[in-house]
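ESCALATION

Customer reports they have been waiting on this structure for their group meeting. Please prioritize. Original submission:
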Amino acid sequence: MAMSRNWIAKIPEGRTLAFYFTKAEYAKENIEKKRVKISKFEKCNDIFELSSFSMKKPEVRCRHGKWLKETNKKIGLICFSECWRHPLMWGHYADNGSGVCMAFSVPTGNLSQVKYMSEREKKGGELHISRSDFEREL
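Update from on-call: job pushed to the front of the queue and completed.
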């Protein structure tokens, strides 16, 4: 049986409902300060964040490490979910199910869908996309 979304106001056209999972204490702080924490890529749960390409060569790993440190000085990310009923999200991000899921109405153009791959891309151990193109996409 599908659960109704009647408890949420109608989302205007051009906006998307996005869910943010967190500990209750952080949700309270976010509401009081009217902000949501921006995470740095180097602090993400996935140690391979922004590393979807093969890094078998030490020089590629070294360049990527330097680039990641520089990128962390410039940008971060906020992770939302399309669904508030996902048990893994509650377990991993909402204090083992005892936290909070906050709902946000976000302009659709401000969100990027995560694309998961089953294996890393390979092309001679190098990126398929230039760094400037990659940064422009961010």
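Sent to customer with the following note: The CA atoms of residues 42 and 68 lie 7 Å apart.
Escalation resolved.
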